[in-house]
Amino acid sequence: MSEFKPFFLGFGNGLKDSLLGITAIFRLDSETEKKEEEKQRKLVENQRQLRGMRTRPKTDNTQPAKQILKNMVQCCLLNGGIFWLSIFLFESYIIPALQWLTHLVFELVSGSSTHHSSVWYWMGPALSYVFGALWVLPLFWLSKPLNSLWFQEIADSAYRKNRGRPLGLVHISRGESVSSYVSRSIADFAFSVLLQAFFLIQGMLVGFLPVLGPLASLIHMCLLYSLYAFEYKWVNMDWSAPKRLAYIESNWPYFVGFGLPLALMTALPSSVFVSGCVFAILFPLFIISGNEANVSETNQFPIRVFRLVVWLTNKVFHKSTSKPRPQQPDVQNQSPSSPPS
C-alpha cells in the first residue's frame, strides 16, 4: 500500500486546499489593510528624508481585497439573487398559483373542473417553455460575459495580492512588443477554450461506459474545474497551455481532490441552468483557493487524459490557420525581352 500513499496524500491535500483556501477571503481585508498601512508609513518616511518636511502621502485607491469582495457580491446578486431566485419563484410559486387559478376559473365558468387536467397538461409545459425562452435563456447568455469579466477581475486581484504583477506585463516592460504579447495571449485563450470544450464532451461521453462510467465522468469534471480555477494563476505566471495540461496530468490526484467539491455541488441540481448558477456563485471562491494553494506534487504516474482533446484541438487549429498559398507565375521559361502573356 505504500506505493499508493502519494496518491491518497495528493488527493487529500487537494481537497483540503480547495476547502481551506476559501477561508482566505476572510483574511483579505486585514492583510490588505496592514500592507496599506506599511506602505503609507514607508512613503511618509521617504518623503520626510528627501524633502526634510512633512508631506501628505498620496493614497493608492487600488485595494485588491475590496475589488475581490465587490466582484463576488456582484456574482452572487446576478446568479443567485436574480437568476436562481427567479427560477425558484417561477417553479415553486407562480406555476402552482396559475394552476390553482385556472382550476378555480373552470369551476366558476363551467361548474366542473373535469377538463382542467387536460388543459393544464399542455398549458403548464407551454408556460415553462415561454418563461425559459423569454427570461431564462436571455439572462443565461447575458450572465456568461459578465461572469467571465468578474472571474478575471477576481483572479487578477488575488494574483496581485499574492505575487505582484503578472509575468506577461513584466515581459512587456522588458522589451516584448505589445502586439506580440496580445497575439500570443489570444492564440492561447482560443486554444484553451476549444480544448476545454472538447474535454467537457469527452467527460460526458465516458459517463456512458458501463460500471466505471459515472466515476470516470466525475474525475473528468474534477480535473476540468481544477483547470478552470488554476488557469487564471498559471496564465498570469506565463505558463503555456501544454505546460498547464502536463502539470495537471502529472499531479492528477491533487487536482481530482481540489475539483471534487465543486463537481459534486454542481451535479446536485437537475436543471442545467441552476447548476450554472451554483457554479457561478461558488467558482470565485475556488479561484481564490487556487491562488492560495501550494500544489502537492506526485509526478509518479501521470495520466494522459488530455491527449485526445489536444490532438483534436491541434487539428482544428491547423485546419483553420492553414491557407492555400497563391500560385506564383512561372517566369523561368519566359525570355527577358518578351513580357508575360
From TrEMBL:
One of its GO terms (biological process) is macroautophagy. Keywords: Membrane, Transmembrane, Transmembrane helix. Residues 320-341 are annotated as: Disordered. Its main location: membrane. Coiled coil: none annotated. Residues 323-341 have a biased composition (Polar residues). GO terms for cellular component: endoplasmic reticulum; membrane. The chain crosses the membrane at residues 76-99, 119-142, 189-209, 254-287. Pfam families: EI24 (PF07264). It is a multi-pass membrane protein. Belongs to the EI24 family. This is Etoposide-induced protein 2.4 homolog. It comes from Actinia tenebrosa (Australian red waratah sea anemone). The lineage of its organism: Eukaryota, Metazoa, Cnidaria, Anthozoa, Hexacorallia.
